[in-house]
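User: I'm writing a short report section on ligand binding and want a predicted complex to refer to. Could you take this sequence and pyridoxine-5'-phosphate and write out the structure as tokens? A short remark afterwards would be nice.
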Amino acid sequence: MIKPLRLGVNIDHVATIRNARGGLHPDPVRAAIVAAGAGADGITAHLREDRRHISDHDIKRLANEVALPLNLEMAATPEMLAIALNHTPNACCIVPEKRLEVTTEGGLDVVKFHDHLAPYIQELQDRGIRVSLFIDPDAGQVNTAAKLGADIIELHTGRYCDTAGKDRDFELEALKAAASMGDALGLEIHAGHGLSFETVKNVAAIPEVVELNIGHFLIGEAIYSGLETSIRRMRSLMEDGRRAARGIRTA
Ligand code: PXP
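Assistant: Sure. The structure tokens for the complex follow:
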């Protein structure tokens, strides 16, 4: 049976717009509440080391004022670990922030940074926080994520979204293979980065993927149609993709 597909709405870029003027508007917490009303299953926010969009105060409010599960994206640093342990979000997605932590493709290099990451994963899990690793769809990365004991891998969809034609087909196959491998290793499979109305269906059709985290496109599209409409349309396209997956399975 194919599992339902959740949508985590990333509200970072509401804070980007707010910070352009330094005031309080637009409020990312209000956006999170609208997202909940539009059918989002979770809220994702990335607290960056330079605080370029989401602030510490936003994280506190998102944890306290929004009923949906919070997925905190963070770098594996002592400062971010302390913040995560303080707010105990539902999940933490460890992402690369310094250039050294990035593979050429853009995900977190969990093979290279295995020893650095292991204690962070342990401490978060000891507090009941689920740990996700944002990695490229690469067999070595998936295998090491499983060995590290992560609960979840979030597959980086950036290259799939940024390519076209045969290159995009190739990237989609890489996502499918990584999802299947991760699932077989007992990992929960999420995906995200750069997804849009055009690119979402094929990823939603990968049966092992159970959550998509989408931000920039949704917030951008909200300029034209409003946030609620943009989220509802994305959900509907995700469902179309999921139906295709069910068709493939039952054929
Ligand atoms: N997932 C992860 C781990 C990310 O770092 C981001 C970007 O913050 C996203 C998903 C969402 O990407 P986008 O804003 O391009 O939809």
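A remark for your report: Residues 6-245 form a domain with the TIM Barrel fold (CATH 3.20.20.70). The two ends are 13 Å apart (CA to CA).
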